[in-house]
Amino acid sequence: MVQNIIEIKGVEKRFGKFTAITDINLDIAKGEVVVVIGPSGSGKSTLARCINLLESYDEGDILVAGVRVENGANLSAVRADVGMVFQGFNLFPNMSILRNVALAPVRVRGLSWREAEQRAMKLLERVNIAAQAQKYPSQLSGGQQQRVAIARALAMEPEVLLFDEPTSALDPEMVGEVLDVMKSLAQDGVTMIVVTHEMGFARQVADRVVFMENGRIVEEGSPDEIFSNPKDPRLKTFLESIL
Ligand code: ADP
Ligand code: MG
């Protein structure tokens, strides 16, 4: 039996009278990599933010590791289960790289600094940035900062990692190093939802690609189905627009 880490059933999110996403149904199995694509404004970020409860949702259910993501209720449990990496890196500027990664396990999990920093060091090795551990965020390139942000998300040992356009704010020459880290996490079996415009990454790494348009999931399938044999005309138009 496949264990679904995330189950999304009939989810809708409105901002006032505006419906940002609607009728979203999506199950994500342990170890699966799902890439979400779609035009700007199609609701990709809103969906990601609902999974992490950065937004409340108005209809439906979201279950993470079998537990319903309650609007307002079990916020810290959800945040511990769902790691999030944003377009901007959001590191704490006044803390070393090592402390940035060690902080949440100390604050939320009650680890000692010594233990948390030992673990943080291992994670920094995993994202190839251990040599910078004592530096501050402003001393690092964007690509390096984003790799630290990934290590920081991993530090809470989440069930799933959520990426919202993690390379969109990077200079082109730094995109590859971040995607390489994400690829290696995928190979290690980390469950990931990745909102991205990097179609090469989607083709290579995704188990499944989900295309959103106008707040709905319009089509989903294997990378081959989505990129080589798109069915919905809106998906065809989108793919033509980005190639
Ligand atoms: P995407 O990430 O695919 O570009 P978003 O999820 O950011 O799309 O936005 C989906 C729609 O919801 C857009 O029309 C956007 O303007 C709207 N929206 C997003 N956040 C808010 C908000 N806080 N208040 C009002 N409208 C919003
Ligand atoms: Mg977005």
Keywords:
ATP binding, six-stranded mixed beta sheet, alpha/beta, amino-acid transport, Rossmann fold, globular, AAA+_ATPase, 243 residues, MetN_ABC_transporter-like, four-stranded antiparallel beta sheet, 9 helices, binds magnesium ion, binds adenosine-5'-diphosphate
Description of the structure:
This is Amino acid ABC transporter ATP-binding protein. One of its GO terms (molecular function) is ATP hydrolysis activity. It is a single chain. With 243 residues, the protein is an alpha/beta fold. The chain has a single domain (2-86, 157-242), classed as P-loop containing nucleotide triphosphate hydrolases (Rossmann fold, 3-Layer(aba) Sandwich), CATH 3.40.50. It contains 9 helices and 10 strands. The chain has helices spanning 44-51, 75-81, 97-107, 113-126, 142-154, 172-187, 199-205, 223-228, 233-242, and strands spanning 4-15, 18-29, 33-37, 59-64, 67-68, 82-85, 160-164, 192-195, 208-213, 216-221. Helix 6 links the parallel strand 7 and strand 8 (192-195). Helix 3 (97-107) crosses helix 4 and helix 4 crosses helix 5 (142-154). The mean pLDDT is 94.
What is the CA-CA span between the terminal residues?
Answer: 38 Å
- Secondary-structure arrangement, i.e. CATH architecture: 3-Layer(aba) Sandwich
Name given to the CATH homologous superfamily: P-loop containing nucleotide triphosphate hydrolases
Mean pLDDT across all residues, rounded? 94
Q: Based on DSSP secondary structure assignment, what is the total number of beta strands? A: 10
CATH topology: Rossmann fold
Percent helix range:
25-40%
Percent strand: 25-35%
CATH class: Alpha Beta
Main sheet, how many strands, which sense, barrel?
6 strands, mixed
Rg computed from alpha carbons, rounded to a whole number of angstroms: 18 Å
Q: What order do the strands of the largest sheet run in, or round the barrel if closed?
A: 6-7-8-3-9-10
